[in-house]
């Protein structure tokens, strides 16, 4: 995550202009856009896109991803391939937090509607069905805490969150 300028001046604009688009993009003038069109109303999709807004990248874009998954570019349409591009170590800080197949920021092994030919294959086959969880994982929370230097507890207690 790269911070610039005064973070208190940054704005997040949530829109549903494009009827079937889910996504996050950083815009100009300290504005970022969270697009939540039709079909983007699940907890997992919203949490994933908010993860981007908080500065998280896709797990399978980490520089060390080849140790954990093999990306099958030949099995995906060209327009998907940019979603699987690795970032450099200089542009990614994982704070020593390990690769998490179950991260809300990790894609499933194949796209919806694709019955065969996975986009990704885990190096450890046991993780094949755990990729792309619809829930926020402990490592997701840990990464956000590290990004924002939140290292303490609230009132000395951990309280469960019921969704």
Give the SSE map:
Elements: E1 11-15, E2 22-26, E3 31-36, H1 43-54, E4 69-71, H2 78-81, E5 120-122, H3 138-147
Parallel strand pairs: 1-3
Antiparallel strand pairs: 2-3, 4-5
Task: Describe this protein's structure.
With 163 residues, the chain is an alpha+beta fold. The chain has 2 domains: 7-40, no CATH class; 42-147, Collagenase (Catalytic Domain), CATH 3.40.390. Helix content is 16%, strand content 13%. The chain contains 3 helices and 5 strands, in the order βββαβαβα. It has helices at residues 43-54, 78-81, 138-147; strands at residues 11-15, 22-26, 31-36, 69-71, 120-122. The strands form 2 sheets. A 3-stranded mixed sheet has the order 1-3-2, covered by helices on one side. Strands 4-5 form a two-stranded antiparallel sheet. It is globular, with a radius of gyration of 17 Å. The two termini are 28 Å apart.
CATH C-level category of the largest domain: Alpha Beta
Average residue pLDDT: 80
What is the fold named in CATH at topology level of the largest domain? Collagenase (Catalytic Domain)
Q: What is the domain tally?
A: 2
Number of strands: 5
Q: Could you list the spans in which at least 5 consecutive residues all have pLDDT below 50?
A: 1-6
Categorize the overall geometry.
globular
Label the CATH architecture of the largest domain. Answer: 3-Layer(aba) Sandwich
């Amino acid at each position: 995550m790269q911070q610039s300028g005064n973070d208190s001046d940054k704005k997040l604009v949530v829109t549903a202009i494009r009827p079937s688009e889910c996504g996050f993009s950083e815009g100009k003038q300290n504005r970022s856009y969270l697009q939540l069109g039709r079909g983007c109303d699940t907890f997992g999709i919203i949490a994933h896109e908010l993860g981007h807004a908080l500065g998280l990248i896709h797990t399978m874009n980490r520089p060390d991803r080849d140790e954990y998954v093999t990306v099958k570019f030949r099995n995906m349409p060209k327009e998907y391939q940019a979603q699987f591009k690795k970032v450099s170590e200089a542009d990614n800080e994982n704070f020593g937090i390990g690769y998490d197949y179950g991260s809300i920021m990790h894609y499933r092994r194949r796209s919806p509607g694709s019955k065969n030919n996975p986009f990704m294959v885990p190096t450890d086959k046991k993780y094949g069905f755990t990729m792309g969880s619809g829930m926020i994982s402990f490592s997701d929370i840990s990464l956000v805490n590290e990004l924002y230097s939140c290292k303490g507890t609230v009132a000395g207690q951990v309280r469960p969150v019921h969704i």
